[in-house]
Amino acid sequence: MHIFIDNKSGSPIYTQIYSQIKDQIINGTLQENEMLPSIRALAKDLQISFITTKRAYEALEKDGFIYTIQAKGCYVAPKNVELIREENLKKIEEHIDQILQLAVSCNLSKEEILSMVEFGMEESKQ
């Protein structure tokens, strides 16, 4: 597992850890039932407080991405297809918002945007 902390991002460290682990679970880099580094080990590796790491792990567990076995450690939870679908839908909506902002700045019509989307979908099938 690779985590990069960007001290200049303005995003809290626990949020950066949460996001990066979540992304690695969703994209399959971290596999179902794979053991994660202990809270203390990850904190030591990242040179941060274990409380920060604990906060990220607790949020991941609360959201269903990991589970904990007492005295054994934290593991990647079995993939919840609905949870992953919902996460991907949120990402798509964010991208659509960006597309719409760019489209307005370029004065594109709805038909032109839909044509671009249809073309992209046809290209991805090939």
Poorly predicted sequence stretches spanning 5 or more consecutive residues: none
DSSP helix fraction: 55-70%
Order of helices and strands: HHHEEHH
| Molecular shape | elongated
Question: Total number of β-strand segments?
Answer: 2
Mean pLDDT: 92
Largest β sheet strand count, sense and barrel closure: 2 strands, antiparallel
What is the count of helical runs?
5
| Strand residue percentage | 5-15%
Q: Radius of gyration in whole Å, from Cα?
A: 19 Å
Category by helix and strand content: mainly alpha
Q: Which key phrases capture this entry?
A:
single chain; 126 residues; mainly alpha; two-stranded antiparallel ribbon; 5 helices; 2 strands; elongated
Tell me the layout of helices and strands:
Elements: H1 13-26, H2 39-46, H3 50-62, E1 66-69, E2 73-76, H4 81-106, H5 110-125
Antiparallel strand pairs: 1-2
Helix pairs in contact: 1-3, 2-3
Structural description of this entry:
It is a single chain. This protein has 126 residues and is mostly helical. 61% of the residues lie in helices and 6% in strands. It has helices at 13-26, 39-46, 50-62, 81-106, 110-125; strands spanning 66-69, 73-76. Strands 1-2 form a two-stranded antiparallel sheet. Helix 1 (13-26) crosses helix 3 and helix 2 (39-46) packs across helix 3. It is elongated, with a radius of gyration of 19 Å. It starts with 12 loop residues before the first helix and ends with a helix.
